[in-house]
């Protein structure tokens, strides 16, 4: 229990809400169960989730020591991509759970929402567009976002932005983000409108997950003596 209290999910979100819930506190245990139930070997995670994955590794190790080798110890697959930072506080990563609505760009945001959020993004008092995450985190974050959605390198983005100020550059970034995300937003909406299709996918997924999980749960019960 003390270990759960020191995991990043609990520390961050309980602080944001000034209180915590049992669901939030035990979330990493449920996460570990989801991983181990399917004998997963490699898990794509962000750096902030590595400690949660380490809990799953430790639980697998403890189970194996007590009941014989059974669960593989899952390994982290870390992305080499740059983190997208909050538009309102570039010292922290962009997060869907951020209470500041202007801080995060969602895949379902309308073009107008995206333009507004990028226009309000925190920058600084220097008008030139440069890339220096330490000295100019806000502008550098916009450069990273622009590079990510356009497929350009950071250096290419900065070169293209030569001679324009940050206010104009925000418009350029917003247009690039809208161009990249709007087709995704429309496809998400199309799928949401086809409820029968979504329910059929969920039903098939449930059956497949049950097929994989049932023999694992059966052997776990046998090994620990829950017949």
UniProtKB/TrEMBL annotation:
Pfam hit, one: tRNA-synt_1b
Top enzyme class: ligase
UniProt keywords, alphabetically: Aminoacyl-tRNA synthetase, ATP-binding, Ligase, Nucleotide-binding, Protein biosynthesis
Keyword Hydrolase: no
Catalytic activity, EC: 6.1.1.2
GO biological process assignments: mitochondrial tryptophanyl-tRNA aminoacylation
Organism domain of life: Eukaryota
Cellular compartments per GO CC: mitochondrial matrix
Nucleotidyltransferase keyword on record: no
Main location: mitochondrion
Cellular compartment(s): Mitochondrion
GO molecular function: ATP binding; tryptophan-tRNA ligase activity
Record PANTHER family: TRYPTOPHAN--TRNA LIGASE, MITOCHONDRIAL
Family of this protein: Belongs to the class-I aminoacyl-tRNA synthetase family.
Protein name: tryptophan--tRNA ligase
Protein species of origin: Alosa alosa
């Amino acid at each position: 229990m003390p270990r759960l209290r020191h995991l990043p999910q609990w520390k961050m979100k309980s602080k944001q809400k000034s209180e915590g819930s049992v669901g939030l506190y035990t979330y990493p245990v449920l996460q570990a169960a989801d991983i181990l139930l399917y004998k997963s070997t490699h898990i794509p995670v962000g750096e902030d989730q590595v400690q949660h994955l380490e809990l799953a590794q430790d639980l697998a190790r403890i189970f194996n020591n007590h009941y014989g080798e059974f669960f593989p110890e899952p390994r982290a697959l870390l992305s080499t991509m740059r983190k997208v930072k909050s538009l309102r506080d570039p010292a922290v990563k962009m997060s869907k759970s951020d209470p500041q609505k202007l801080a995060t760009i969602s895949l379902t945001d309308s073009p107008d929402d995206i333009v507004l959020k990028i226009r309000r993004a925190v920058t600084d008092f220097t008008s030139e567009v440069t890339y220096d995450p330490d000295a100019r985190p806000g502008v550098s974050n916009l450069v990273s976002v622009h590079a990510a959605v356009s497929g350009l390198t950071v250096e290419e983005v900065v070169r293209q932005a030569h001679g324009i100020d940050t206010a104009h550059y925000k418009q350029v970034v917003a247009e690039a983000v809208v161009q990249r995300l709007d087709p995704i937003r429309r496809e998400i909406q199309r799928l949401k409108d086809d409820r029968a299709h979504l329910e059929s996918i969920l039903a098939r997924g449930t059956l497949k997950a049950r097929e994989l999980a049932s023999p694992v749960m059966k052997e776990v019960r046998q090994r620990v003596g829950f017949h």
